[in-house]
Specification:
The structure holds 2 protein chains of 2 kinds.
Chain A lengths: L2 E5 L2 E5 L7 H8 L18 E4 L2 E4 L12 E3 L7 H12 L9 H14 L5 H8 L9 H19 L1
Parallel strand pairs in A: 1-5
Antiparallel strand pairs in A: 1-2, 3-4, 3-5
Helix pairs in contact in A: 2-3, 2-5, 3-4
Chain B lengths: L2 H13 L3 H11 L19 H9 L5 E3 L4 E4 L4 E5 L8 H13 L6 E5 L4 H4 L15 H28 L7 E3 L2 E4 L2 E4 H9 L27 H4 L16 E6 L7 E6 L1 H4 L4 E7 L2 E6 L2 H8 L3 E5 L8 H12 L4 E6 L2 H6 L3 E9 L11 E6 L4 E5 L4 H12 L6 E5 L15 H12 L6 E4 L2 H6 L7 E9 L5 E10 L18 H4 L11 E7 L15 H18 L4 H8 L4 H14 L9 E10 L2 E11 L5 E11 L6 H21 L4 E2 L2 E2 L17 E6 L17 H13 L8 H5 L2
Parallel strand pairs in B: 3-4, 8-18, 16-17, 20-21, 24-27
Antiparallel strand pairs in B: 1-2, 2-3, 5-6, 6-7, 8-11, 9-12, 10-11, 13-21, 14-19, 15-16, 15-18, 19-20, 22-23, 23-24, 25-26
Helix pairs in contact in B: 2-13, 4-6, 6-7, 13-14, 17-18, 17-21
Classes of the chains: A alpha+beta, B alpha+beta.
The complex binds FE2/S2 (inorganic) cluster (FES) (2 copies).
């Protein structure tokens, strides 16, 4: 069965087994490796992508469920919020090993898209599903606040 | 790797002890010189993807190698060859910073590439003739080496300019990647090929620290760009033409073996290419990881557990304790602790229990192997690449000179990728061999594989006793540590000078407090559970036992735990300086209000000194919130202060995470925690605010990757005791809070 969906703004088709998780279609079949694997059971957030704009764990999402929908990954995300997040991440040197950071940034971008000035509690709620074993949490929080300020300055 | 042991190793290697093993390793690693680099696939890991693409479509700049560590491109890019693994600790920023400083380059022209496995050129000088990353040694062992390499390269550029311009060398100044004399001026790139013709100076002149322009300032990380747009390539991202994905069904108990298996069902899954038995289990190869993993679940395997570790955690603990009733291996003996305890006016004692811990790096272990008739190419992130070359040679029978390691960025390591028997690399090579190299293979562990494969921080039991004399002073300290040896029976056994593995007791034998009678005994129980260094190694549990027990003794004496530490550390100025700094910045002594507590701990590891003060809030129902951590660190000269801060923040988060909830336990030999649902690391809502203060002692730079971790758990426990009156002696803490 051929499944068609939007991937980073382009239409793509796949004949992958319908139970193959989106994560592996993205990484193995579409060759976009910025989205990472960490647990396979929706516990770590390394595989976070946007599905029709919502942060989603791609490791547990069968490709069949993606038919006709729109998928955005770290390689394709380019909203204002995404740009502000990336800039803040670089300015504050958030990364250590970097492996979790695609997922962190996808979750953070979705947060800012829905909530332009998140509180610490909002950040805890939105980012609680993303593990970072390098424990860069402290800087992730600061970078989200900085990106939010950046965005509010732009619109003001 | 432990600070104690690495120094010993270097000494032993230089004295020729156990020369056989290390000559073997060095011979394996000596695969000839790297000449040029146009064909090196390790190119510019720090270059952002957009630039990498641009390079591919425009004519490649000409590269000139000035020495083993410094290359200059005609486009003025300076590439530093990084001999250490980047696992997030910042070597791709810290090492180029040293070069940029002595070269007088501008920071924006700096790039990095990973060195090939070559123990002759790229050995860790703290380890002997082994290329390795560990023990927080990357900066310390590279410091002089890279300064000399860069100063030498600078001198060659100056000589070349002097010859070209017909001016005296001392009229030439160098700044921001340009050489200038009067009205003449040229960039590094313009002079590089002429510089390569010059004779390198025998004794390059190094800058005085007062002349530093870059070092000591906050340089932006060179790896940030690639790690924030998804372009940085980790091992898991490596693609090779025709590559198969492999997973391995391993014995569910350590030391188990395959008795027999039936792969009929697995082979029937569309996409499955092969099922092969290897010495470590049964491997399934398929066109997709998803398929391989699914088919693995369909294997019907009979296991043989005759020689396996079949005990449960409680039985292991009982065996550890029984051993501690007997005399141990003496690790330190000052005065007469037994006699002083016998005559003490009061004695205090405590038993501590520490579980096995998994490294649980975010990227599970993985390795790509392309095996040819006479050569083998390996893509992985290894802390000891020259050892992996040796392992691969042993498995394949290939000439080590034809085994090439292509180092990739590591998605975390914390010690996990420094494996004496190269476990995951060996497994991948075994699979490639089992299919006669017919396709490239990517071995990719699932989280469950990674969590249950062993190589844990050793489980440990401690017994500590202190005696107080008539004047209320601590007169005796007896510390017994039972924990598993990491080194015994491995390629690193040479680091042991006696039967006692120094990593078992490190951090207890150098107890800094002025106590007249001190005795430390080590015990090394045997289990079938493989163990490994885990961010700060023995210090993880030893610092906890020492610093929590000391606190407990202070409170029993009615003393303020900070004041008593100060009083008893007068002979240890570096401990004292960080202790005072952390206490002062944290506002030690001020009232925190009800339900709150404050704890302190100080510890030396890897030649760096760290003190931490932690503030907590305990709710009436026993819920814990870690509110604030104030850290003071003396790591000698801090080259890149922001990287030092990041490593303290990360090391503290890692330590708190383990203390709070992490534990690997066994039931009849089988690991109970298989994924992040039961092995539950710290999350963002639990991460406290961390403030890091760097205390500059003026000493040469020392490690920062590990030393932030040891004081964090005891400072937390001491804060909880301040709030509740109760010292937690069995980890993880969360299990005890509501007990
Ligand atoms: S890999 Fe999807 S949440 Fe961990
Ligand atoms: S940066 Fe390493 S896991 Fe998050």
């Amino acid at each position: 069965m051929t499944i068609e969906f939007q991937f980073n703004g382009k239409t793509v088709r796949t004949d992958a087994p319908t139970d193959k998780p989106l994560l592996w279609v993205i990484r193995e079949d579409l060759g976009a490796t910025g989205t990472k694997f960490g647990c396979g059971i929706a516990q770590c957030g390394a595989c976070t992508i946007h599905l029709d704009g919502s942060p989603t764990r791609s490791c547990v999402l069968p490709i069949a469920a993606v038919a006709g929908r729109s998928v955005t990954t770290v390689e394709g995300v380019d909203s204002k919020a995404a740009m502000a997040i990336r800039k803040a991440w670089r300015e504050l040197d958030v990364v250590q090993c970097g492996y979790c950071q695609s997922g962190q940034m996808m979750s953070a971008t979705a947060l800012l898209e829905g909530n332009p000035s998140p509180s610490d509690d909002d950040i805890d709620n939105a980012m609680g599903g993303n593990l970072c074993r390098c424990a860069t949490y402290h800087r992730i929080r600061a970078a989200i606040h900085q990106a939010a300020e950046d965005l509010s300055g732009e619109t003001a | 790797m432990s600070g104690v042991t690495e120094k010993k190793l270097a000494a032993q290697v230089s004295q020729g002890l156990n020369r056989r093993k290390f000559l073997q390793v060095s011979a394996l690693g000596g695969a000839g010189f790297l000449i040029g680099c146009s064909e090196s696939d390790t190119a510019a890991p720090s270059a952002p993807s957009a630039e990498a693409e641009a390079v591919a479509t425009s004519p490649a700049p000409v590269e000139t190698e000035l020495n083993a560590f410094v290359k200059i491109q005609s486009d003025d890019t300076v590439t530093v060859v990084v001999k250490h693994l980047d696992k997030g600790q910042g070597v791709t920023t810290g090492l180029p910073a040293i070069v940029a400083e002595e070269l007088d380059a501008s920071w924006s022209q700096m790039r990095t590439e990973f060195a090939p496995a070559d123990a002759n050129r790229y050995a860790n000088l703290a380890f002997g003739v082994v290329q390795g990353t560990g023990g927080s040694t990357s900066i310390a062992n590279s410091w002089e080496q890279l300064r000399l390499a860069a100063a030498g390269a600078r001198a060659m550029l100056v000589q070349a300019a002097a010859a070209q311009w017909g001016v005296a060398a001392d009229t030439i100044s160098v700044a921001d990647g340009r050489l200038t004399s009067g009205d003449k001026s040229a960039s590094f790139g313009e002079l590089a090929s002429a510089a390569a013709e010059q004779t390198p100076p025998e004794q390059p002149v190094l800058k005085d620290r007062s002349e530093f322009k870059l070092l000591g300032t906050n340089l932006p990380r060179l790896d940030s760009a690639g790690k924030t747009d998804g372009s940085t390539e980790f091992t898991i991202d490596v693609q090779r033409p025709g590559m198969l994905m492999a997973v391995v069904a391993r014995p569910p108990r350590f030391g188990g073996k395959v008795a027999s298996f039936d792969a009929t069902e697995a082979l029937a899954v569309p996409g499955v290419a092969r099922v092969v038995e290897i010495p470590r289990g049964v491997a399934v190869l398929a066109d997709s990881y998803f398929t391989a993993n699914k088919a693995r679940g369909m294997l019907d395997i009979q296991w043989n557990f005759d020689e396996a570790e079949n005990r449960s955690t409680a039985e292991l603990e009982a065996d550890f304790k029984a051993m501690m009733d007997q005399p141990g291996l003496e690790a330190r003996n000052d005065g007469d602790a037994e006699a002083a305890l016998a005559s003490a006016a009061q004695t205090i004692e405590q038993e501590f229990h520490f579980p096995f811990l998994a490294h649980a790096t975010m990227e599970p272990m993985d390795c790509v192997v392309e095996l040819g008739a006479e050569s083998c190419d390996i893509w992985t992130a290894s802390q000891i690449p020259t050892l992996d070359v040796g392992t691969t040679a042993a498995i394949t029978g290939l000439d080590p000179a034809n085994i090439k390691i292509h180092t990739r960025f590591a998605g975390g390591s914390f010690g996990r990728r420094a494996v004496p028997d190269s476990d995951f690399v060996a497994e991948a090579v075994m699979i490639a061999k089992a299919i006669d190299g017919e396709s490239p293979v990517k071995l990719h562990w699932s989280r469950e594989d990674d969590m249950t494969a062993g190589r844990y921080r050793p489980m440990a039991v401690h017994r500590v006793r202190a005696g107080l004399d008539e004047d209320g002073k601590i007169s005796a300290w007896h510390h017994q540590v039972a924990s598993l040896s990491i080194l015994t029976g491995t390629a690193f056994a040479a680091m042991m000078t006696s039967e006692l593995d120094p990593s078992v007791v490190e951090g207890t034998t150098d107890l800094p407090y002025a106590i007249p009678n001190i005795r430390v005994d080590g015990y090394q129980p045997q289990t079938g559970v493989p163990v490994l260094w885990w961010r700060s190694v023995g210090h993880t549990h030893n610092a906890y036992a020492v610093e929590v027990f000391f606190d407990q003794v202070a409170r029993t004496m009615g003393r303020d735990p900070y004041e008593l530490r100060r009083e008893m550390l007068t002979d240890h100025p570096r401990h004292l300086a960080v202790l005072n700094k952390a206490a002062e910045e944290a506002g030690w002594g001020t009232d925190l209000g009800p339900g709150r507590g404050r704890g302190i701990a100080v510890h030396e590891s890897f030649n760096s000194f760290v003190a931490e003060v932690i503030e907590v809030t305990m709710s009436e129902s026993g819920d814990l919130s870690i509110d604030r951590v104030v850290c003071a660190v003396d790591c000698g000269f801090a080259l890149t202060p922001d990287v030092v801060k990041a490593q303290m923040e990360g090391g503290i988060g890692y330590g708190l995470s383990s203390a709070l909830r992490e534990a690997i336990t066994l039931t009849n030999g089988e690991v109970d925690q298989k994924n992040f649902d039961r092995y539950r690391p710290l999350r963002i809502n639990e991460m406290p605010k961390v403030e890091v203060h760097i205390v500059n002692s003026g000493e040469p730079p020392t490690g920062v990757g590990e030393p932030g971790t040891p004081p964090s758990a005891p400072a937390l426990a001491n804060a909880i005791a301040d709030a509740t009156g109760r010292y937690i002696s069995r980890l993880p803490i969360a299990d005890q809070l509501k007990a």
